[in-house]
Amino acid sequence: MTRSKAFRFGLLLLAAVPAAAQQFPTKPIRFIVAFPPGGSVDLHARYVGAKMAENLGQPVVIENRPGGNTHVGAEVVVHAAPDGYTLFHTLDSTITLNQALYAKIPFDPVKDFTPVARLASGNSIIVVNPAVPVRNIRELIDYAKANPGKLNFGATAATTQLTGEQLKTLGAVMVHVPYKGTAQMVPAVTSGEIHLVIDGHTNYVPFVKDGKLRALGLVSPGRDALLPDVPTVREQGYPELERLGWWALFGPANMSPVVVARLNNAAMWTLKQPDFLEKQAALGLTPRPGTPEELGAQVKADIARWTPIIKAAGIKLD
Fold first, then answer.
1. Model pTM greater than 0.85?
2. Which residue in 63, 117, 131, 194 has the fewest CB atoms around it within 10 Å?
């Protein structure tokens, strides 16, 4: 194809794109967050949204829709118009784990969403109230075996609840107590209302450092600079508990590739801005940029990895 023909072909393709997509965005965009205000997911969404708004030239509004094990928020996005003005700022668990963990979910994680941008990865931690007489994962399992059902654990999403259920398969018989968000779970574990928590680590760092909580191990692959003395579960001999969660943006199915590209460009620009990266680091998150194609491949790979593990272990969350 000659250069002139290629140019004309490009003009024809552009002409085929709806004007609304070419001009996107012309009004505020909303991020649906499936958690209450105040937790790390909510804060990260607000940081991402504020910075992307600078690039897009339109406000980004955060809409918290907690409930239903994150399915309430997911459904809002699934049923929204695929015009790019409603996006799902979410942890990976809703998209990659819930299909295997729940008997029925109100969406198809692959068919009902358009991957937009991968944003970050984060560490999770297992912490206990100091009244619980354990100091590592081995002692936790032994204590729970000797006292079946005595311990309870808090978790806010399938990602972290899965770790608790995996501990059960190792003999640590514990009772799950669901929470809608980290903001509710922190005072519960520091007061002794619940015995231990499996959650994103950042909100617990100050309490671990001042002795109000005891860290048993990081669920993520490597140690964390905020708590360098806390070993990983792999270091303690439990590699099967290891998991690295990621955070991303999705939209409804059938979004225009032009709109997706515009949103991804804004997100990738955001991940390069020093002021944003400083705020993200304060949440204990690491930049993990990704194209829509890379995010889509990540979803399929994680589903393929975790579904047989969950089914083999007989883990169900409903």
1. no
2. 131
